[in-house]
User: Fold these one by one.
Assistant:
Number 1:
Amino acid sequence: MSISSFISLLRPKLSLGAEIFCDPEDIGFQKCLERWSNVDVKVPTAIFCPSTYLDVGIIIEVASEHEIPFVAVSGGHSPWSTISSPGFILDLRMLNKITVDNENEIVKVAGAVLTNELAATLSEAGRCTTVANGNTVGVIPYCLGGGISILTAVAGYACDQITEATVALADGRIVRANENLEPDLFWAIKGSGCHFGIVLELSLKTFPLSILGSDDGSHWAGTFIYTLDRAEEVCKVLEPIMANEEYNTAGSIVLAAPPPAFQPMLVVAPRFMGDPERALSLFQPLSDLGPSMMSSSNPLFFEYQHAIDYACAKGDFKHFNLVGISDFKTANFLQVVEVYKELLSTCADAGPSSYLIQWHTSVSKPVVSESAYSHQDIFIWLNTFSWYHQAENRDLVMDFQNRAIAAIRKDQEEANYVDYASTNRGAPVERRYGGADRILKLRQLKQKWDPKGVFTREFL
Ligand SMILES: Cc1cc2nc3c(=O)[nH]c(=O)nc-3n(C[C@H](O)[C@H](O)[C@H](O)COP(=O)(O)OP(=O)(O)OC[C@H]3O[C@@H](n4cnc5c(N)ncnc54)[C@H](O)[C@@H]3O)c2cc1C
């Protein structure tokens, strides 16, 4: 069936509120196509914006029957929510809804709700949950892929907050999945959800704002800036802090070349969730090193992500990747520093790029649920954020990214490599989903729930 016949067949079946954009010149079409990165952006034949869950089920059923490829899009931060003709995009933004249920300590998030929208709504209700560090990241895909956050220290990974999912399946049926209903689908949703269906709605556990260390949900956040030649001393100070399980801390060690000087420097941004006086003593060694600049603030729950709003800008050429490391080695990080310096001196176009270590350490270990996600034991991640303006620099920039990853993994057994499935689908499956039993179960469940690969070919 041609895509135009497909659209004509579907139009009368959908709700009055549903929209279909077919003209790339249409402003609605173009708005839907705006993405976090222009790397490999493709133009679909159509963009469907369903306005009810039933619409989604009907679209999937007909697309599946006629083998018309499609991808869902929420926040548009991944490289996988773009598709070329004759495929179409399923844009979920008209389904957006946030319902806070304080009595049951959950929040229901539907459609393509973004991180900042959820954080603001929860804050107003005096609650919080694990949310991404980037404001414009789509909440549902973030949770489905694991969900690392500053709050991981106190609340756990985002996938472990999921108590129920409403899912549109490959045959168009819409089901609820939780511990009792479709428990195997529920297990797969938590960590690999986008390979099993379109998740229309998630129920997430919420927590009082006080888990962040104060009644109003504010926490201590510091910024210490050093020249790159201080990297070794800084890391030596940070090593024991990152491993210290007496406090709830999180933070990042960032290699960046920010304006106005555009010179590479080291920015340490620790967070402390607890009595701010204790934060001052814990991070005193960072002050004692005599940074070029230092400051501190007490951001509220809905404000803490604002610090990286610049990185959420749409367009241009960007890649975002995370690899997990079991323990932080200063010597390896110093090699990453060298790679970063060489990146900037070889490719000035990649100046906005930054490589960073992010960590979270906690006193009490948050609850981990049985799920497809396997990296709850990782508390240190290398984030390579590559950003350039000229498409032809892609291979060069990716080569530096790979070198940075190789440097941080030096002397690590290859069998223990960890890749974050939400940012890298190309890595061997064993690195994304740990354990042969888990992978076997995922393959069996894929056969059960999406044997034709309507959503993705992963696990087939
Ligand atoms: C600037 C930035 C900051 C980030 N910060 C963090 C962070 O702090 N922690 C972290 O863990 N990750 C972080 N990430 C990674 C991010 O969580 C993943 O890339 C996530 O998948 C993005 O979701 P999205 O809705 O924005 O992307 P999209 O590209 O819209 O969706 C991602 C994938 O999910 C599919 N999909 C979309 N909606 C649905 C749905 N409802 N049901 C099923 N499948 C769906 C898409 O087809 C695509 O394959 C960040 C990424 C960027 C670029």
Number 2:
Amino acid sequence: MRGGIHIDADTQLITALHGEATDFVPVTSVTQTATLEQMKASGAAWPAAHTDPHKLYMLANTFRSLTGIPVIRIPFEITLEAEALGCALNMGKMDKTPYVNEPVGHLPDSVPRDATSLGRVSVILEALDLIEQKVPHDVPVVVGVTGPFTLAGHLAGIENLVKWTRTDPDTVQEYLTLATTFLNDYLESLGTRSVDVVSILEPSASTDMISPSAFKRFVMPMLKELADATETTKVLHICGDCTPILEYMAQSGYSGLSVESAVSVKKARRIVKESVSLVGNIDPVSVLLQGDHDTVAEATEKAILEGIDVVAPGCGLAPATPTENIVTMRKETERIVNEYQ
Ligand SMILES: [Zn+2]
């Protein structure tokens, strides 16, 4: 409620991501949401929920029904793009996300025609159709998409790609160009469905993997190209302490930056000023997985007081995360927002 007028959850989230909200802080997740408790409650578990559109929808929707956080966020992993471009996957287990078994190891000649009919892209599109039919339209729909550097790393082998940023920049560019061409096609197909937020996930472009100058030189132009290609509200997530590259992330064309707890929200705000919204940064491991009510309450309050625009887990949820802790994150956000209004 704002001034006695009810504002839809999707309007709240989009407004906050565009930096226009001054008196409310929504709570959401732009990273993977599924947990074992949700799998049990929905009867839709990993790994089947990665390949069956109905199970994917059921599991994603159960995050919303169990936690009360108004969002439906798919998928639960970051390998479907690599699979579409020819990587063999291990589909993981109930408590383990799929991973690339073997990089393609060579540069595919080109992005196959009609790339979006490949692999499990159709599973995502079908799940979005089910969401459109079954979920109230004021619930924000968030789709996670693997970023170009992470996808290029799946194709080339991440150790190779990281090494080539120093020794063979042309090959890095070739892989990135191919990855970005595919991602543009994929984003275009997502644009034919009702998607409120696209969340670009670039774990392999973290400062643990490549230098800030390599990020600026190789990754930022590709992220910009993707951002320019879609009108949908966009969030960029990079793992770890991304403080040294926040300035470049903020210049890449995304409305929101999703940051982990390693990033000080105060410091981040000084760097990005009001140019982008900050999303996060509740630690998914030490707080949401291992913490208790007080740990979650303290982390939530700290994030809000330091100026987070949207409260969310700082990275993907661990499958064993207790529902109770996610509910505490939501309730504390609501309590604090009401208190300071
Ligand atoms: Zn992360």
